[in-house]
Amino acid sequence: MSIPAPSPAQIRAAAAGLVAGVAADGRSLDDLLAGDPDQGAARGLKRSLAYGTLRWHFRLDAILGGLADRPPDQLPPRLRALLEVGLYQLCSGETAPHAAVAETVNAARELGFGRAAGFVNAVLRRFQREREALLATIDADPALRTAHPRWFVEALRREHGAAADAILEANNAHPPMWLRVNRRRWDLAGATAALEASGAQVYRHPLAPDALRIEPPCDVRTLPGFAEGRVSVQDAAAQLSVELLRPQAGERILDACAAPGGKACHVLERVDGPCELVALDVSEPRLERVRESLARLGLTADLRVGDAGEPGAWWDGRPYDRILLDVPCSATGVIRRHPDIKLLRRARDIPALARRQARLLAAAWGVLAPGGTLLYTSCSVLREENAAVVGQFLAAMPGARDETPRLTAGWPGRAAGSGPGYAVLPGEADMDGFYFACLQKAA
Ligand SMILES: C[S@@+](CC[C@H](N)C(=O)[O-])C[C@H]1O[C@@H](n2cnc3c(N)ncnc32)[C@H](O)[C@@H]1O
User: Fold this and answer.
1) From the alpha carbon of 259, which atom of ligand 1 is closest?
2) Is 379 a catalytic residue?
3) Positions of E strands within 112-236
């Protein structure tokens, strides 16, 4: 028996449930969407409403504050989220206004807020009437206009000066879909031809030689070559890691924070001959995703569950020639892909992350061979997690040098303030925000 497709009101109610799951319960959208049973158009609409509402949450909440008779934080979380979903539809213009209002009111009933249906209707209609004046006031504040938490806007202005505005804009853009071609199974010309034959427009990247961007983005499972392990999805910035690490055949390589495995698999795809790659991660369930990707791509690695900060528990005592340390971080460089980060990350998280990153760097250095290379990477745009961590480490560690290369003259990465390494800012050369520091150990 086939399950009937959800109604428009049910889709909006489900989107509100996702938004409240992030905003009120502090859960990640990926986590909430894991095992999503919805298919087809309903799935697409639900996701686009949830992503869009979260992307604009701080602005929508300010709008709501100007319309409702009580502050948003005094509303039940799912009603507040539903009102934001309704306002998002009216602001984005992707749904006819009368349908946006009517279906949001119906969704209130779906969520058990039948008695608030009149209130929902009144708030959305008032927005239609007062939109211009309300938005003029709200949009005078850059944090509200670009829908970012104030602490983050201030940190960007402090660290990136005039570039902060471009980062804020880029964070609200729809992210491109970058593929990584598995060089062991396909070449770029073959991949391009197959993708174009499937109806996609295909573009190359000036710095990431295995990267292809496709338009329009699609469900990865429908991509030609995906099931056969010929392509994976990975942002072009992440793909630069292999260009900087420069792994060689015959080497012992450690990926110290490996899951879900994108960079570890890329290393194995690129090494020209056998090598020994240890893929370590503290999370066993996440390591399972590395196992799945290796199997799909026809690659092998030595998978280990362990804390990279405590090598005594997992290290066999043989040093590594190259180490990739892709640290757990605030993920503030990938907000365009994960808008829930705007709500989930707090200013107070950053010093704690920086201490954790410093601990991992010091421990990883201890298992690096003399003459070896350690590539420190993060998808944060904050100096405190990047150049500050690496700079303090270099200052305290004799025999450690910053040798981060410029990949080409066109390399968009910039010196990360006064410190070591290079940063790519979100949107630059169509990439996610990323930080790289290539550290060399004296022989
Ligand atoms: C940024 S992600 C790594 C992404 C991965 N390199 C890739 O390209 O797919 C950070 C990873 O570090 C892991 N992690 C966090 N703390 C760790 C620790 N103390 N030791 C090892 N792994 C850790 C997390 O479980 C997470 O999978």
Assistant:
1) 27
2) yes
3) 177-181, 201-204, 211-215, 231-233
